[in-house]
Amino acid sequence: MTDLPSFAIPARPRRQYDRAGRLSYKGSVLFRLEPTDPEGIDLQVLLETILQSGPYRHGDFHDLPMVVYLVRDEETSDVFRVSIRDGALQLHVLPATESDGLQQFYERLCEGTETEWAVERRVEAVPESE
Q1: How far lies 44's CA from each of 47, 55, 82, 103, 118, in Å?
Q2: Beta bridge pairs of residue 81
Q3: Which superkingdom, per the lineage (predicted)?
């Protein structure tokens, strides 16, 4: 693989807490990984296989209507969320996430499948004044 996609993070989400202490984020960076040939790919089984084969610590959010994991790559120390939506895996950048962990996840995904993966980056930046 010579033409690896870039997992550069051009902006960072910011944590904010409401008066009740609930956490939310302002801004977002999301990498959407979609198989070019989705035939026969069960994304949930694939994701669980990759997470269980390591080097990940992970936990899922049980009360959500979709699959969402909080993931820590033990090699890079990067933490990010992974979800499944609309036929794609989505890597959600957290304030301290670095590109290395996302790149490693992508490479492990490619190694674990025989399909190519289209990568799209979506950024919702927060103005500096906020």
Answers
A1: 5, 18, 11, 20, 18
A2: 70, 92
A3: Archaea
Whole-angstrom distance, CA of residue 62 vs CA of residue 105: 22
- Distance CA(11)–CA(28), nearest Å, equals 8
Per-residue pLDDT of the chain (130 residues; tens, 9 = 90+): 457 899 999 999 998 899 999 988 899 999 999 999 988 899 999 999 999 988 998 887 766 677 889 999 999 999 999 999 999 999 999 999 999 999 999 999 999 899 999 999 999 977 665 5
Nearest to 130 by CA among 14, 29, 9, 10: 14
Structural domains of the chain, with CATH? 28-124 (3.30.70)
Angstrom distance (rounded) from CA 130 to CA 123: 16
Whole-number Å distance between alpha carbons of 73 and 58: 9
